[in-house]
Amino acid sequence: MKRKILIVEDNVSLSQRQKDWFEQAGYDTMTAMNEPAARALIRRHQFDLILSDVRLPEGDGISLLEWLKKEKRDIPFIITTEYVSVPDVVRTIKLGAKDYLPKPVHREHLLELAEEIFRPLATVRTKPKDLFKRTCPRILEVERFARLVAPSDMSVLILGANGTGKESVAQSIHENSERVGMPFVAVNCSILPRDLAPSMLFGHEKGAFTGADAAKPGFFDMAKGGTLFLDEIGTMSFEIQSMLLRVLQENVYMPIGGQKEKFADVRVVAATNENMERAIKEGKFREDLYHRLCEFEIRQPSLAECPGDILPLAEFFRERFSKELKRDTRGFSDDAIYRLRSYSWPGNVRELQNMVKRAVLLAENPLLDMKNLVPGNPSDDSGKDTMPVIVPLKNEDVEKESISNALQACNGHREQAARLLKINPATLYRKMKKYGLR
To answer: Which has more confidence, 235 or 291?
Structure first.
């Protein structure tokens, strides 16, 4: 079932534009121009996210958020405004708003925020998940490290930017360990509710706090015998860090409200995109916990560091989403291939996946083109958004790699590769012979 989003905005063109963004990303979206209309829709429909302007013709976004709290409707809420007010920011965050966005709101930021909100707190897998086999030398090195550390019960810390596939590394460690076949529980620490985090991690007994009508297991219970993957570990509060340190030191934990300790038969793998040295220096992360988590460190490279993986991954996602969305696509146009290979992918594999999914959904022809791959006008890209992977053939030190990248991007098609390199096919063929490329 599609996620349902309500946009509360009196600027009709902006409201329609945001509605289009969300619907192109696969969400079901409704709009309202004022607070009374929004309340009426909320009473009739079950929304998963509300995006509201502060200033409205009738009522305002903050009073709508207050009404939701009084009605005990726990719906993720994002405030937008042209007039940023510090008191308003503090007030909305205290009321539980997920974010406070100054206008203009950018499409990529908004969709990324929605994706983060909708990402489940934890996922549990008991069967191995098929992973795309990448060929980049840096990724192969990561996989070698994962296989080496997997048989031990050492705690592993995976470092890398958002969207690089750190969970895939953790999953590989689990599947190459003696714990394979047992649960793999992945927890997104960045969205754990601060007050509920202890009970969600360690469980609670009946009557432990208001609303605890029954005993409930935590993530450590769910991962018993298997692997607990703690993603975005750098966002944990100091209180939870202290509780986690005790588990790692003594292999026991106490459910909230419990009287009897439980044995933690769990292998912990953590990940973060934070600069941990800086976090420790600034007093945001416990140094003793860091050393407990980092018995073995693995750094996951960015997608820009693995140019040879870009097109194979794009093809993998195109095939997957063509089946899921029931769309007939057969590949990428020459322009799209060039764009895929030359873009810097700041959002890494996750951004590539989302962009290909969008392109498949909007495809009017079997070959996906630049129009469907790039939000807005690709000609507007500034130099800071691109990182040429296929560079002009001016320097013999880099031209072999450029030719190899171009051939790989074009699946060995020489004429297409020559167009990407802006040389004629005869020149390309001569240089291929020179470097022993086929």
So the answer is: 291
Long-range contacts (CB closer than 8 Å, 24 or more residues apart) made by 62-67: 62/88, 62/91, 62/92, 62/95, 63/35, 64/8, 64/35, 64/38, 64/39, 65/92, 65/95, 65/96, 65/97, 66/95, 67/35, 67/39
Instruction: Look up residue 344 and give its DSSP letter.
Output: -
Locate the DSSP E strands across 2-47: 4-8, 28-32
**Which domains does the chain carry?**
4-118 (3.40.50.2300), 122-301 (3.40.50.300), 305-435 (1.10.8.60)
- What band does 111 get if pLDDT is binned at 50, 70 and 90? confident
DSSP-derived secondary structure for 101-165? EESSPPHHHHHHHHHHHHS-SEEEESSPPP------HHHHHHHHHHHHHTTS---EEEE--TTS-
Among 423, 185, 160, 408, which Cα is nearest to 301's?
160
Q: Which residue has the higher pLDDT, 136 or 83?
A: 136
Establish how many alpha carbons lie within 13 A of residue 337's alpha carbon, considering only the half-sphere containing its beta carbon.
Answer: 24
Convert the pLDDT of each residue in 258-294 to its tens digit. 889 999 999 999 999 989 999 999 999 999 999 999 9
CA dihedral 75, 79, 85, 88 (to 10 degrees): -20
Residue with tokens 């799209």: 336
Distance from chain centroid for Cα 31: 27
Token pair of 232 as six digits: 């975005």
> What does the pLDDT look like over 289-311, one tens digit per residue?
999 999 999 999 999 899 889 99
Give CA–CA dist 125/172, Å, rounded. Answer: 13
List of residues 6+ apart from 433 with CB closer than 8 A: none
3-state secondary structure of 10: coil
pLDDT tens-digit readout, 112-121: 788 778 876 7
Structural contact between residues 333 and 300, judged by C-beta atoms closer than 8 angstroms: no
Judge contact between 98 and 78, C-beta under 8 A.
yes
- As given in the structure block, the two tokens for residue 95 are 């009321």
Kindly tell me the burial class for residue 190, based on how many C-beta atoms sit within 10 Å of its own C-beta (0-12, 13-18, 19 or more): middle
